Amino acid sequence: MRTQLGTFASMIFFLLILSFCTVQLHSVGYLKRSDIAIDPTYTVHVIDMLKTADLTFHCQSKDDDLGVQHPNPGEDFHWSFKENIFATTRFFCSFQRGQQKQSFDVFNDKIRQHCIHCFWQVLDDGFYTTHDGTYYFKVYDWK
User: Fold this and answer.
1) Where does residue 94 rank: exposed (0-12), middle (13-18), buried (19+ CB within 10 A)?
2) What pLDDT, in 10s, does the model give residues 44-65?
3) Is residue 4 scored above 70 in pLDDT?
4) Of 1, 30, 45, 120, which is least surrounded by CB within 10 A?
5) 7 by DSSP, 3-state: which?
6) pLDDT at residue 112, as a whole number
7) Start-to-end C-alpha separation, the chain
8) Separation between Cα atoms, residue 81 and residue 53, nearest integer Å
9) What are the pLDDT digits (tens) for 93-136?
């Protein structure tokens, strides 16, 4: 009985310290509310950075079809969602520009690890994303 009580007291102490540290990190700006959310809302942005208005794309998941999009250059098409209970939500998009095409996941369990706001830029030479919101790197070429 004494060991169980000691273990319980240690666990309570640990949780109090963890809570205190989380509150302190949040209050000084090191943690945003979305960083500690149990059920975060994700947002995927697809930004048309092409020089001409000839992009067409279609994004969908197993449950949600976002329809065919015809954005203007500079336009940001975005949507927000919560993951399913199994954390297996996957959104994929098919892009077309003249005779060039490309299809890929814009959100899945791997991408989720790097973003709450997931940004994709469509450029003349391919598709770019970012993990930090400032530096974009190329992920796919047009086919």
Assistant:
1) middle
2) 999 999 998 899 999 999 999 9
3) no
4) 1
5) helix
6) 93
7) 67
8) 28
9) 999 999 999 999 999 999 999 999 999 999 999 999 998 888 99
pLDDT at 11 (0 to 100): 58
Please calculate the CA angle 9-10-12 and round it to the nearest 5 degrees: 65
Alpha carbon separation from 94 to 29, 61, 72, 125, 142 (Å, rounded): 38, 12, 17, 16, 11
Distances from the Cα of 39 to the Cαs of 42, 63, 68, in angstroms? 9, 18, 28
CA distance 42 to 103: 21
d(CA 103, CA 83): 21
Residue 39 has pLDDT above 70, yes or no: yes
| Long-range pairs of 126-129 with CB within 8 A, sequence gap ≥ 24 | 126/102, 127/95, 127/102
SS3 6: helix
Query: Is there a contact between 115 and 131 (Cβ–Cβ < 8 Å)?
Result: yes
Ranges of beta strands (E only) in the chain are 41-48, 55-60, 65-69, 76-82, 91-97, 100-107, 117-123, 126-130, 136-140
